[in-house]
Design goal:
The complex is a heterodimer of chains A (about 160) and B (about 140).
Chain A (H helix, E strand, L loop, with lengths): L2 H13 E7 L2 E6 L3 E6 L6 E5 L4 E5 L13 E9 L15 E2 L12 E8 L5 E6 L3 H18 L5 H5 L5
Antiparallel strand pairs in A: 1-2, 4-5, 5-6, 6-8, 7-9, 8-9
Chain B lengths: L1 H5 L1 E5 L2 E5 L3 E6 L7 E5 L4 E6 L2 E10 L8 E2 L19 E8 L5 E6 L3 H18 L1 H8 L5
Antiparallel strand pairs in B: 1-2, 4-5, 5-6, 6-8, 7-9, 8-9
Helix pairs in contact in B: 2-3
The chains are: A alpha+beta (about 160), B alpha+beta (about 140).
């Protein structure tokens, strides 16, 4: 193997896996850079939810981390409380985010909120109201998962995904 | 960040993937320094703002140390309790990014006392997140499932 090729391979291993181009600027992204790419219009291929834990999982048909097929899952969580306002303290509509909301496992209420919990996270996004606390407790988690999967009323593209940053 | 959302290409080996307007790209590069930082020592929360967006995190003070800027998937105190953020059980300050992606717990520094850690840890996490690339490497490099 030629010396030039050895150096090229070594440099590739040591320094860089990814290069990114944004408009005219090109940034070299090394192996300590976190990179996620989410295809907004693509529905998850499958979802599962755990009502007791108020958690759900979204599995996608594409790599969330470029060229890493082990990164195809986003986890989420749901909560029921009595908060009805968005960040601007205006009455929340479905898909609105509240960046100040901090959920607790002790929260009880009729208002259903959804969020992504990892590896990419979002602020809490308002799903809507249930008729009772019990109904919210039983239905909020799967409602979040389904609304994200089906992009109901653009809940995923204009709600959850916009609440990531 | 708008630029990164609008147009993004990533290459690994011979494969190149270019995103379109349909793609939301989240790129956290530890080389890029921050512009400002905030903290709330009561809530053990911090943030650091960059040209591409703001990252948010939590902090904790436990009685187990670590290697500076290195991360652990699960942080426990000496009693075996799992840290979730906001503990005041030791003088060792740890930081974790929570938005827009979840990192592992990254060890930041040892304070002289539990009280000093409690009042300074969140500030330290935010400030170092803004100013120190080695610390950002610990945070951003530990993101993932």
């Amino acid at each position: 193997m030629g010396e030039y090729m050895k150096k090229t391979i070594s440099l590739s291993i040591l320094l860089t896996l990814f290069y990114a181009g944004a408009y005219a600027a090109t940034t070299c992204i090394h192996n300590r850079t976190a990179v996620f790419t989410i295809k907004k219009s693509e529905n998850p291929t499958s979802v599962s939810s755990n009502t007791a834990e108020k958690t759900f999982t979204l599995r996608f048909g594409y790599d969330l981390v470029p060229n890493n097929s082990s990164q195809r899952t986003l986890n989420g969580t749901a909560t029921c409380n009595e908060i009805t306002t968005n960040t601007a303290e205006i009455t929340a509509a479905p898909g609105d985010a509240n960046v100040y909301l901090r959920a607790s496992s002790a929260d009880i209420g009729t208002q259903c909120w959804c969020s992504l919990s990892g590896p990419v996270t979002s602020w809490w996004v308002y799903y809507g109201a249930f008729d009772s606390e019990d109904a919210c407790d039983a239905g909020c988690t799967s409602a979040c998962a389904t609304a994200i999967k089906d992009n109901t009323n653009n809940f995923r593209t204009n709600g959850i995904y916009l609440a990531i940053w | 960040m708008a630029g990164l959302i609008a147009m993004f290409c990533a290459s690994a080996g011979a494969t190149t993937m270019c995103a379109t307007d349909d793609t939301l790209a989240i790129v956290l590069d530890p080389v890029i320094s921050g512009i400002s930082s905030t903290y709330n020592s009561d809530l053990f929360e911090w943030s650091a703002t960059f040209s591409y967006g703001t990252v948010w995190g939590i902090a904790t003070c436990v009685d187990t140390s670590g290697q500076m800027n290195s991360s652990v998937e699960e942080l426990r105190d000496s009693n075996g309790e799992i840290a979730t953020g906001g503990e005041r059980t030791g003088k060792y300050c740890w930081c974790k990014m929570t938005h827009p992606a979840v990192s592992r717990w990254v060890f930041r520094v040892a304070y002289a006392s539990v009280a000093a850690c409690g009042s300074g840890c969140a500030d330290n996490c935010g400030f170092r997140g803004r100013a120190e690339s080695g610390f950002r490497s610990g945070l951003f490099g530990s993101v993932g499932n």
